[in-house]
Specification:
The complex is a heterodimer of chains A (278) and B (504). In chain A, 14% of the residues lie in helices and 26% in strands. Chain A is α/β, with parallel strands linked by helices and 278 residues long. Chain A has a domain of 144 residues: Pectate Lyase C-like, CATH 2.160.20. The termini of chain A are far apart. Chain B starts with 8 loop residues before the first strand and ends with a strand. Chain B folds into two domains: 87 residues, Alpha-Beta Plaits; 334 residues, Aldolase class I (TIM Barrel), CATH 3.20.20. Chain B contains 16 helices and 23 strands. Chain B is globular. The chains are: A alpha/beta (278), B alpha/beta (504). At the A-B interface, α2 and β13 of A face α3, β5, α6 and α8 of B.
Amino acid sequence: MTLFVDSFLEGVRSIDELLKYARIEGDVAEIDASDLKHKELNDLMRECVLRGARRLILKNVCGQRYIGTRLYFKNNVKIEIEIHGTPGNDLGAFLSGHRIVVYGNAQDGVGNTMDSGEIIVHGRAGDVVAMAMRGGKIFIRDNVGYRTAIHMKEYKERIPLLVIGGTAQDFLGEYMAGGRVVLLGLNLKNEKHKSHYIGTGMHGGVIYLRGKVEDYQLGKEVGVVEMEQEDWKFLENVIEEFCNHFSEKEYDKDEILAGNFMKLIPVTKRPYGKIYAY
Amino acid sequence: MRSHLLPEFIVERIEERCDKCGVCIKQCPWEVFRWNDDKTDILIDYTKCVGCQRCVVYCPNKALIVRPYPGSYRPNAYWTKEIISDIKKQAEQGGVLLVGTGSDRPYKVYFDHILLNASQVTNPSIDPLREPMELRTFLGRKPDKLEIEINGDDIDIRTELHPNLVVETPILFAGMSYGAISYNAFLALAMAAKEFGTLFCTGEGGLPKEMREEYGPVAIVQCASGRFGVDPEYLNCAAAIEIKIGQGAKPGIGGHLPGEKVTAEISATRMIPEGTDALSPAPHHDIYSIEDLSMLIYALKEATNYEKPVFVKIAAVHNVAAIASGIVRAGADVIVIDGFRGGTGASPKVMRDHVGIPIELAIAAVDQRLREEGIRHKCSIIASGGIRCSADVVKAIALGADAVYIGTAALIALGCTMCQKCYTGKCAWGICTQDPNLAKRLNPKEGAKRLVNLLRAWSLEIKDMLGGMGINAIESLRGNREHLRGIGLEEWELRVLGIKGAGE
């Protein structure tokens, strides 16, 4: 018989044992995450909310996954989560309306299939940021990894937004079906963006790129179109919001807006409509 | 370009029975029938016929016969009519051949090479009409051991149990999305599941908001690579969540719901703009390994407060046993294994007909492997893909499954005649279509009734077979291969199935 280890659930302590890691004062709870396993932290966060906390301050976070995911409540209560340290994968996965601010870097899967709410990362993020995101906003101050915004979607007035201050690795906006991605390239010093295959298989949504990108970096399914008045208006708002979030960088909105912007949209809503025989 | 294809079907009319009522014209979405100019006769263009038999069934005078077109090429066992037609079609259209339904190729059907046991003398058989017979099945992870505390008459279970689902018969409805099938067909499945005490799977097209309260508790909601319609309420309203990795009809590839099928209602449920192709990527791009799968399994458990079992559905492929072991270790509560006969609304023909392995071999291999590793109780196994009758259900369970999914059989109950044209969206039976005029042909209440009848009929037959074996609970049949014997099978086949030959 081989050994079976359920590393995720093994050794998870009961909520009574975990409460000592939290200090709840009024509607603010402060949690010291340094000794907590993934599930323990999320159990404790949920418990704090059930006990009336609406603002959660997480200290010493180190790799704990799914922060914010467990906080789906039928009464749609909105929670503010402040994270100090490095949250683990799937930060804010399936997020339901909460606001998460990370003072540090994030790992893979930020905002995976996120439904609504806001995630602000004062640092970089890993791969598949905003995968299948369907609403809400994500702001990443620095760079992101591979396959960012893959299969992001939109429906009517629900249009997700992802803003990246730095650059992205390959397959940015792959399979994108909706939403807005803004890639600012603020840390590039006259170099090209890193990503290749930008918008491969894209069939909805818009990507705004600031800075340099060569034609060969773009996927076959995207086209570059002229920026119009409403695009500038949209960008102005978004960039203002970005600058406000990351005041530590002292970015200047107008300086950013003066950069070279490019608008990418899919060439068709049906990229693979013509490959079949009936 | 002139088409070189031969007609597939011929439509014949028994003239003396036909009173030119025009029902055939109304019923056929393929425009085989039309009035002549002065509306005195109905003209037939059988080259458009797909053989769905709708006109035959609905002709009030039974005046029509639809049968395969008798004319063919010079008989050739190698270059068959199908092969020649496919080549011609691709030469004319230059694309990937699309088909609907599961594979129709004459591969060996293992179910038909397995026979069941019955009690004679040494062990009494049971009459299910008069004695209790248990088909109730619990799906989900079971504990390693059960600690109980007895206080007088009270018995408390002290072990913390994982969430389990209860079904009244080991037959569930397989994932078929709203989008692939019509709203009425989808609703009929939900209604039947609720009435009979089983579950239906939404497929990856989401669960319409208005159905969530009533049918969420009998829904297995799917989270597939396209993540269509996946929101926190969708996950939390359901009985269970299924991560779809693959399906038997097209292992290893994604899916394209063509934009013309993405109507306003479908776009609302999937949360994508109307008229956009709904593209499901081949892999989940957050799952490139067992560790990543584990991450999504726990993401879903986190999103539902550990209240729902998480299913993982894979296609039966070559190393299915090792993959299944990884899936259990990743934290899945139920594994669904979809054999290569599994149905589909649209699949490239080459994938459907040439990729994957039979469900019978896959189930036996997975059950054996999980037992050897001592982790069989950590998950339930659902066998899926080509379950045609109650005997297939019994054989699948005796080979190691806990329950089965039926998809094609359920659609046949609703009216499907296996014409294989699902991908055209013109289903004359109102099942695989989004055309409101066609979809309304299927009355959800009547459809649900047919489905409930089917479940009832199969359940009665299963009880008969169990009783005959002297078994009074479906639990005792699971993995009970002593009750199976092979016929016409080679040594290696018997070995993989873990059964003896007939007479042994």
